[in-house]
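User: I want to check something. If I give you two sequences, will you return the structure for each one separately, not as a complex?

Assistant: Yes, each is folded on its own. Here is the first sequence with its structure:
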Amino acid sequence: MKIGVPKEIKDQEFRVGLSPSSVDVLVKAGHEVYVEHQAGLGSGFTDEDYQKIGAKLVPDPASAWSQELVIKVKEPLSSEYNFLYEGQLLFTYLHLAAQRELTERLIESGTTAIAYETVMDEQGRLPLLAPMSIIAGRLAVQFGARYLEKQQGGKGVLLGGVPGVAAGRVMILGGGNVGTEAAKMAIGLGAEVQILDINVDRLSYLETLFGSRVSLLYSNPANIQKHIKEANLVIGAVLIPGRRAPILVSRDLVKTMQPGSVIVDVAVDQGGCIETLHVTSHSHPTYTEEDVVHVGIPNMPGAVPWTATQALNNSTLPYVLQLANEGYEAIAKNKALFYGLNVDKNTVVHSSLQDLFF
């Protein structure tokens, strides 16, 4: 099969769909891989790295997008919509729950679009979302700590505190992969940490993981209202596969937060769980509303592309290889890929998206 790897064009998105080591596996399996010029440079991979293992370099995005199977990291942007065509297989993060225009263009184009974030294994896990969730969770605390600095518009709180001065308080909404990794980082910095989740079984698991180092609370309006006033950093880590994240923090609650506190919403690519938060970018990462610093970067792992590209490829390669070997038939043979199918034959086929859009 002919596989295209376009260069990512989202703001400061330095990841790449396939690393040289992944391309090497695909080429040795008999496939042709067309990599756009300098597509991997931001992740530390040169054109020569790809050429050495048999990739074919192409000079423009159209040449990469014209292949049978296109492997990306982030969803197509408006300038890429014209590259979508009937019969094309597209495998990438899509997050269509917050992307009506993209959804409509995928329907019109006839592209078969498989979303990393809805690929689900037999245990109900999301194996292609997990590596980026881990990275995003860890980065959320790093970003939050930075924007709590006075020069960045924050209150001037050191999350770890110092002897004689209280540590900063971190509230994490959601105890999944993002929330768990955020808690690890916040604990490592010495912060006081709370995790709120609606899944009591998950809270029990987190107790075995963190013990008394984290305050574990059931997520309900009363608990959020009570504790958000004391938080220096709030991390939104709510995910409902294929659906928009629910709003857990209203504008009225944001108004009760301390001036200079920070919100980092990792769920922003699914709509976000904070009413006052909207999408930002690596170039313009923050804005202040209700005296609170807001961070809503949807491609947060793009800040660490060398790590993130390799972590993502470790998980995606087996699925990419099956799609390359078997084409469209792989979707029927592999239930995980079937769950990942979002748009096919001019129709939204993922049940959660059908409920949302129709």
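And separately, the second sequence with its own structure:
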Amino acid sequence: MEKVTSKDGTEIAYDAYGSGPGLVLVAGGFTERSRYAADAEALASAFTVVNYDRRGRGDSGDTLPYAVEREWEDLDAVRSATGARFASAYSSGSMVLFQAGLPFEKLAVMEPPFRVEGSPEPPERYVERLQEFVAAGNPGGAAELFMVEAVGQPKQVVDQIRETPMWAGMEAIAHTLVYDALQLRDSAVPLELLASIDVPTLALYSNASPAWMQESAKQTAAALPHGKAEGYDGTFHTLPPETIARALTDYFLTT
């Protein structure tokens, strides 16, 4: 593990794998960098993969008050420290990558969770309720709100997860659900923002994800001046590490 200091003094932790041109992985919501270790290892034969903890997660700091711009600065600090040429973001991490506006040569995103036709209705007062749970010292309430109302998991499944050892780790980063919600703004496809991104970008999706998630990736690619969408066999909101490695290697290095 290595650390870099962001503009506001927050320490951002990262692991580096492999050798070759630098590729930064930007985590999605409710995850730490450990979630992407298998992807990083699969990519390490072609890239120097930089897998970092977004602020408030894992081994990174969390200087308050939070502002969305601080995460853009964190990504810039990681990029500057490692010389990474490429970046790939998962889920809501896509908005960190898109809004940061950094000089990467190519980008990739995995199923940005923009709400398109057919997607679940956004929870009422979602950001405010997340903030209220966090302020009340109830991270489990924030986690359940996200999992049940935002993602659509059955409450009984969440109740079962509450009884497992993983729940404590989920509660430890539940406050960052507020951060992702603020990054996503109203969760609509950000057409004006995407139209301004003059960087070749690949939007990936899993053929096993709900139709609206696949459509969100396709609409993202269509709104980008140099966007391309590709679907592969996978599971819900996830592609196998070897599939991600093959797709990103082909896109970043051979096209």
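Because they were folded independently, the notes below concern the second chain alone. The chain has two domains: 2-117+187-254, 126-181. The chain has a mean pLDDT of 96.
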